[in-house]
Amino acid sequence: RNRVVLCTVMVMVGTLIAGFAGALTRGPAPEVSPRLLTDSEGRTLFLRGFNTASSAKNPTGLADLTEEDVAREYSDMGTNFVRLLLQWQAVEPEPGEIDQDYLDEVEKRVGWYEKRGYHVMLDMHQDLYSTYTSSEHVAGNGAPEWATQNDRLPVAEDLDMWELYYLEPGVIRSFDNFWGTSDNDLDLMDHYAKSWGAVAERFADNEAVLAYDLMNEPWGGTLQAAEFERGPLAEFYRRSIAEIRQSDSDTWLFVEPQAVGVNWGMTSALPAFDDPRDGEDRIGFAPHLYPLPMDLGKSYASAKEEVDDALATWEDSVLRTAERLDAPVILGEFGLDATAPGALDYVDAVIDMTERTGMGYAYWSNDPGSWGPYNGDGEPQPLADTLNRAYPRAVAGEPLSISTTDIHLTLSYRTDPQVTAPTEIYLPESFGAGGGSVSCGADCETNWDAERRVLSVTQAPESGVAAVEVRAA
Ligand code: 9MR
């Protein structure tokens, strides 16, 4: 019965959103993200990693993570990116009081990634607004207790699917009180923005922290779709951007669209944002991808065509929005029960799409269990192999084409004379202990770092278009 309720709700919301999505002008969508992220050396970045982790949804806001876990993730899958979960309730446990000890702990974890050359996106996570929308604390994470006002509206205790709590009156009212769309005037949004200001003060000079993801999966309560995205959500982003830029002018700021609908492929109505820094704007777009047929319980094996259609629609919508916002894209979440029929083919299809379009990605998630690369006993699952793919981590110029299999990689790019750091390519064990055989033209130099499994390629600056090919040994 719950599924029927969920379907009905989703169709209603979907229809609503389709209404405004259709209203936006349609021209040809770009095939590649309009902007690609670059590192401090000017190289184009391809980001691949995990959300870490659901365990950070407890009130401490800290994932159950050790430095060994990070080392193991690298050696098993060669990732270079993490979307690290934070919680507002841990940053600002009492109104106006920032918990610097919490930020110390976050910094320590960032340090584990930094040591291994990762880029970090800090994600201020929430699901269902907060743990405190009901006195039983049945579901949710994010906002502190003092910032949760449900005005005594009820929240059910026994829903089958966690997403259904988004429709409970007490959850909806807590959101409305946050967005300032209820009759109450609490100015909670300002507290949240100032919390970001405090996080930014801490991480402004941290080389590993590349980006801030301003709010996980925003939900408008009683206000939906364009009205929400262009109204209170946009206002919230403007305030957070302003607070962050007081102390941090360089870190990228990633905005998320409304989750419901856009996660399935509806077009976001978010407006573009000004970035009050000197130089080019650094505003990125970080949507999530959960195709509707799969949200409704279908497997990729049983609904491949339908899911492929949903993927194509999602890609088209996201690239349009990214172009409108002039923003690089990080796919902040995609994931599924990786033991379901066809799941690993789905993961491959999504990674192919990110490779083709230059999007970064963070798989949801590295939680031990059926969705993750390790099971409950910590043993690697087939997903770990699927995610352990060859990829160019950093490209010394503008990428023109990329193609990868287990035993073969080709990459071409336009060299940039300003960029002197090498192109770096991660190659999994299937390429052999020596990293395979490389051809890259007469003027290039290569170096194989066997421990990190990274091939570095330096081209003569005048080489124009560079082509690199690697074959498994
Ligand atoms: O996988 C998570 C599940 O175990 C939790 O019960 C749920 C509520 O906190 O959140 C799930 O993770 C979701 C993430 O927080 C937001 N995007 C969708 C994720 C998968 O449903």
Strand content: 15-25%
Rg computed from alpha carbons, rounded to a whole number of angstroms: 22 Å
Adjacency order of strands in the biggest sheet:
7-6-5-4-3-2-10-9-8
Topology, number of strands? 18
Tell me the span between the first and last alpha carbons. Answer: 55 Å
Overall average residue pLDDT = 94
Spell out which ligands are present.
Answer: ligand 9MR
Helix coverage percent of residues? Answer: 25-40%
Q: Any low-confidence stretches, pLDDT <50, length ≥5?
A: 15-23
How do the helices and strands follow one another from N- to C-terminus? HEEHEHHEHHEHEEEHHEHEHEEEEEEEE
Number of DSSP helices? 11
In one word, what is the shape?
Answer: globular
**Biggest sheet features:** 9 strands, parallel
Which structural category fits the helices and strands?
alpha/beta
Q: How would you describe the overall organization of this protein?
A:
With 473 residues, this protein is α/β, with parallel strands linked by helices. 31% of the residues lie in helices and 19% in strands. It has eleven helices and 18 strands. The chain has helices at residues 2-23, 67-77, 88-91, 100-114, 169-179, 188-203, 225-245, 292-295, 304-325, 343-357, 382-387; strands spanning 44-45, 48-52, 81-87, 119-125, 209-213, 252-255, 283-285, 288-289, 330-334, 360-363, 391-395, 397-404, 408-415, 423-426, 437-439, 445-449, 454-458, 465-471. It has a nine-stranded parallel β-sheet. It has a five-stranded antiparallel β-sheet with strand order 1-11-14-17-16, with no helix packed on it. It has a four-stranded antiparallel β-sheet with strand order 12-13-18-15, with no helix packed on it. The longest helix has 22 residues, at 2-23. It is globular. Ligand 9MR is lined by residues 54, 57, 127, 141, 162, 217, 333, 364.
